[in-house]
Design goal:
The chain is α+β, with helices and mostly antiparallel strands. Among the domains are: 88 residues, Gyrase A, domain 2; 82 residues, Sandwich (Immunoglobulin-like). The protein is built from seven helices and 14 strands. The strands form four sheets. The protein has a five-stranded mixed beta sheet, with no helix packed on it. Strands 1-2-4-3 form a four-stranded antiparallel beta sheet, with helices on one face. Strand 3 and strand 4 form a beta hairpin.
């Protein structure tokens, strides 16, 4: 038997196998090059982000940066307090709930609370199985309990039933204390004293109603002496802040001014063709202060305009506002690094070049063999 035909089939290479092979190789190379390009692009963007962060760190005065830091710290504390308060509310409601739902002859000694899942793992003991079954029945019938499970019990050393049980609570458990407020207030209200009357029937003593918010009146010099003190306190509480915190024009795109709190100046660059003779600014300044001229009125910014900020205590500060019109051929600031379109074009070019080279090699190889 002649096996030469089988051997020729085993060693023969088909042209489409070469095409697939070189295609996969070109795809691998293009992927590696694309990864390198995106890596470089990411590095450029990180550098730009670091530069912009440094710029923002130097914006404003030391007092403004301190106020910003205080606001961020207060915001973090508020968020932390919300989490703590929510957990405390859940724990408080659960303990109050279990206090009212626990029957005699049953004692709970360990609580494991899961606020996110709304589950409570309970451990305790009871005098007998009948008390435990009645306790489970009370929990199952309660509207705040959605499921009772994982119940197991055993006989303890003191001849009492040791048990573990898991209950799942309805989210409305957060309203439990609200529902109980009228009952708790009624039970906590002290009883009114009763005094005997001449006829012998006890009656509730009544005292004239007083308004704690109403100030006691004084006559003569005593009343007059309180007036200067309150006046001095109001004067001392007047703010001395007179700052312009932001100055911008609501154009398209929005133009944000650079406020220099050291030299008390504001500078803005508006696009070419903007009518600076009729511009209405948007100004943020110190709370409680006033500003002149009226920021809601349009102004002619052909020449620098002076804005005066008057504090609550009567002191004032002038800011010189300068508006510069950019020239017609002014270019927008170029972004550092190539954009995503350039990256895609480069990937396509590299991929096409590799594929073309692969096909060229395949054609030359086939031509040299003369098999096709």
């Amino acid at each position: 038997m002649d096996f030469s035909v089988i051997f020729q089939l085993r060693t023969k290479r088909f042209w489409w196998m070469d095409v697939i092979f070189y295609f996969v190789i070109s795809l691998l190379v293009a992927t590696v090059l694309s990864y390198g390009i995106f890596l470089i692009k990411n590095n450029w963007q990180r550098q730009d982000l670091k530069t912009e962060t440094l710029k923002f760190a130097n914006v404003g005065t030391d007092e403004q940066r301190k106020q910003e830091s205080d606001v961020l710290n207060y915001q973090k504390k508020i968020n932390d307090f919300n989490g703590i308060f929510k957990n405390h509310e859940f724990a408080s409601n659960v303990f109050a709930f279990m206090q009212t739902q626990t029957i005699p002859n049953v004692w709970f000694k360990q609580f494991s609370l899961d606020e996110k899942g709304g589950t409570v793992q309970l451990s305790g003991e009871s005098d007998n199985l009948d008390a435990l079954s009645r306790q489970v029945s009370v929990l199952e019938k309660n509207k705040y309990v959605t499921n009772v499970g994982n119940l197991n019990s055993s006989l303890g050393d003191s001849a009492k039933i040791q048990f573990n049980v898991s209950i799942t609570l309805n989210p409305s458990i957060f309203n439990y204390l609200s529902d109980m407020t009228p009952i708790l207030e009624a039970s906590a209200a002290p009883a009114q004293p009763q005094v005997p009357t001449t006829s012998g029937a006890p009656t509730t003593s009544k005292t004239p109603a007083t308004n704690p918010a109403a100030p006691a009146t004084q006559s003569g010099a005593g009343a007059a002496a309180t007036t200067p003190a309150s006046g001095q306190q109001s004067v001392a509480a007047l703010s001395q802040e007179k700052l312009i915190t932001s100055f911008h024009f609501l154009l398209k795109p929005e133009v944000i001014g650079i406020v220099d709190e050291n030299n008390f100046t504001v500078s803005l660059n508006v696009p070419f063709g903007t009518d600076v003779k009729l511009l209405t600014p948007s100004i943020d300044f110190s709370p409680g202060a006033t500003i002149l001229p009226d920021p809601n009125m349009p102004q002619n910014f052909t020449n620098p305009v002076t804005y005066t900020v008057v504090a609550q205590d009567g002191t004032s500060q002038d800011y010189k506002v300068t508006v510069n019109v950019l020239p017609e051929n002014a270019k927008k600031p170029a972004k550092s690094g190539p954009n995503i379109l350039v990256i895609i074009v480069l990937i396509i070019i590299v991929f096409a070049a590799i594929a073309a080279a692969a096909l060229f090699i395949i054609r030359r190889r086939n031509k040299a063999k003369g098999s096709y």
